[in-house]
Structure formats: C-alpha cells, structure tokens
C-alpha cells in the first residue's frame, strides 16, 4: 500500500533541516507502530519520501510525504496513531492511498505559495506598491541559489500576487514557479519585496502556504493529482 500524507509543520519547527524533518517522521512511524515497508539491501531504510524541501526558517501549512506500507491500514487509524506521537507543531491532516505508478512528489510539485505577514503597514499602501511593481518591465533580483552571481528575472515565474488584511496584519501571498520557467526561492521573493519599499522590520512571519501541481491555469494539491 502506498499513501500520500498532508501535514502541518508549524512555526515551532521552522529551524529544522529537511534531514531533521525526515528523521523526526521516521521516529514517529516507529513509535506509532505503523507497518511501514523497508528497502532491501545491507542497510534497509523506511520507504519514506519527503516532498519539496521546506527552507530552514520557514514553516509550512500544507507539506507532503509519501510512504509505502507492508499492510493495508485505515487512513483515519494512521492519522490518529501518528498524531498521538508527533511533537507539538506537527499534525497529519489528510492521508490518501495512491497508485504505485504515481510519480514522486519532487517530480510533480511545480508551484508553491509563500505568505509574508506584515505589521504596521496599510493594505492600501501595499496595493499602491503592488501597482508600481506591475508597471516594471522586469523583476530582477540576485540569485540566492548555487549561482549567486546570476541576476534572475522573477516576473515570468510569479503567477499571482494577492493581498489581504488579517486582524492587525496584512498578508502578501505569492504563488510562484518552483521549476520551469524559473525556480523561485522565498528569499528571492523577500529581496523583491524589499526592492519596492517594504521594510524588513515590518515582516513578522514568512511561511509556505501550499504546494501545487500546476496544470495550465489549474492549481491542484498533490492529493488531487493522483491516477
């Protein structure tokens, strides 16, 4: 049985590396007595495949991992078992059985939404900055990836910019490409926002809102994109 899990990785875990997150999930699977499958060979490991890497410093509302099981189990049972042993800040939200032919998460997730939470700034002021940004012919920033000397134009890879008020704060939500036509990192988005006049001290939180499988103009969750 192969399953795909959607989970919350809360603010308490935003400084965990991807390797630390995987180790935490493996310990939880053992403690919860989940009948996970093991790989073959001299050093067998749990057949657990994490989704796209959650950058250190960010937390995620909707993250994913795939898991192979030796025996068929109820998704509700698995959710209950894991949530009983997982540390605070981590919660399994949904579980769905998927076909073995379904591609790995890393291959199908091609878009993500990042949220920047701002304080002491008016929504109307942000909307004006947004309009000024839209008038620019390009949105160039210095790459934060391996090729740090490269200048990247983010304009073709930013699909949506949405703003909304939430209590005393304002949230900027940017839906972006995570592969083609350009791979966009959250810290490059931060540089772009700073370039239009947003002050870094006004940004009180950054998190990944969602991971998507973008097909033309549709944004599907990895749980929806199944065979």
Give a written overview of the molecule.
This protein is of the alpha+beta class. It has 2 domains: 106 residues, Pseudouridine synthase I, catalytic domain, N-terminal subdomain (Alpha-Beta Plaits), CATH 3.30.70; 112 residues, Alpha-Beta Plaits (2-Layer Sandwich). The longest helix has 14 residues. The chain starts with a strand and ends in a 7-residue tail after the last strand. The model has no long low-confidence stretch (mean pLDDT 93).
In short:
By secondary structure, the chain is α+β, with helices and mostly antiparallel strands.
Please mark out the parts with pLDDT under 50 across 5 or more consecutive residues, or reply none. none
End-to-end Cα distance, whole Å, is 14 Å
Q: Give the strand tally.
A: 11
In total, how many domains does the architecture comprise?
A: 2
Q: What is CATH's topology name of the largest domain?
A: Alpha-Beta Plaits
Describe the SSE topology.
Layout lengths: L1 E8 L8 H14 L16 E3 L8 E10 L6 H11 L4 E8 L7 H4 L2 E9 L3 H12 L5 E3 L8 E3 L4 E9 L2 E9 L8 H10 L7 E13 L2 E3 L7
Parallel strand pairs: 3-10
Antiparallel strand pairs: 1-3, 1-4, 2-3, 5-9, 5-10, 6-7, 8-9, 10-11
């Amino acid at each position: 049985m192969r399953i795909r899990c959607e989970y919350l990785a809360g603010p308490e875990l935003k400084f965990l590396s991807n390797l630390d997150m995987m180790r935490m999930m493996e310990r939880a699977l053992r403690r919860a007595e989940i009948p996970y499958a093991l790989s073959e060979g001299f050093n067998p490991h749990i057949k657990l495949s994490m989704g796209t890497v959650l950058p250190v410093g960010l937390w995620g509302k909707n993250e994913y991992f795939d898991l192979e099981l030796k025996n068929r189990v109820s998704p509700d049972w698995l959710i209950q078992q894991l949530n009983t042993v997982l540390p605070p800040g981590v919660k399994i939200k949904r579980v769905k059985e998927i076909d073995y032919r379904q591609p790995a998460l890393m291959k199908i997730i091609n878009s993500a939404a990042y949220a920047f939470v701002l304080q002491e700034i008016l929504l109307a002021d942000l909307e004006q900055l947004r309009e000024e940004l839209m008038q620019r012919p390009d949105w160039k920033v210095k790459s934060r990836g391996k090729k740090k000397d490269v200048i990247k134009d983010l304009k073709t890879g930013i699909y949506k910019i949405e703003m909304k008020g939430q209590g005393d704060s304002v949230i900027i939500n940017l839906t972006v490409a995570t592969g083609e036509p350009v791979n966009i990192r959250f810290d490059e988005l931060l540089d772009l926002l700073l370039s239009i006049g947003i002050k870094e001290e006004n940004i009180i939180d950054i998190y990944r809102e969602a991971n998507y499988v973008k097909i033309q103009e549709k944004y599907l969750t990895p749980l929806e994109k199944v065979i």
